[in-house]
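Example record for the data management plan.
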Amino acid sequence: MNIATDFFILDSPIETDIGKCHFIKVRDFPTMAQSLNLFSWSKSQIIYNFSKANKDGSLTPLINELKPLKLFTIVKTVGDLNDAYTNVFKKVLGEDTDLEKIDEKNFDNLRKLIMKMNCLREEKINPNPEIQKAIERSKRVKQKQNGDSPDFGDMASSIVSLSSNSYEDLANMTLYQFHMTYYRIAQIKAYDTSTLFATVPSEGKKEIEDWSKHIDLFKEDSHFVTESQFKSTTGNAVNG
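Corresponding structural encoding:
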């Protein structure tokens, strides 16, 4: 299923084979945040999170049961996940939608659509625990170097402070519009800063990026490390 995101900014519902799919508004985010978080978990992340919580081994039978299953079946099996998916599906498809129409054939495509419409991304989880721990260490180091990522409140206050939008306007935005507006403002501010510094004589001139360049909300996580990359890195460290 190819999902054309060009016109997501317009907040027009998307037609699916089980009805129209609507965007979630910013005003609904506080009550939907937990469900959306669980909705974004891939099969790998579900199993990884269970494994991290399996301190006493009591979850081992459940983990072993989930490993061969498809995500659709896992969602049906785990109560908290099933509740989260039901909450999201009813919100975007409508309370009266027959959720029994969602089956193994259309589940993956519908989930991908809803995730893109609401700027949700799967966190890539490496099946090798050692590599996954290295990825998480890399994230922590990068966060310390670059500072914490902006949270919802930071993004909201930035949009209101640097645009003509009020908080009431903000509440009526879709989550997609919210994220696109925030990153467009950030791109414009970066452009203004770079053009200002371009007037200052210096040895290292940086290329000025167009303030209106395409913003990719779905680009790959730069922290992810493949097994071959991990082996290459650790091998160089040992050899060095």
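Summary line stored alongside the record: The longest strand covers residues 14-16.
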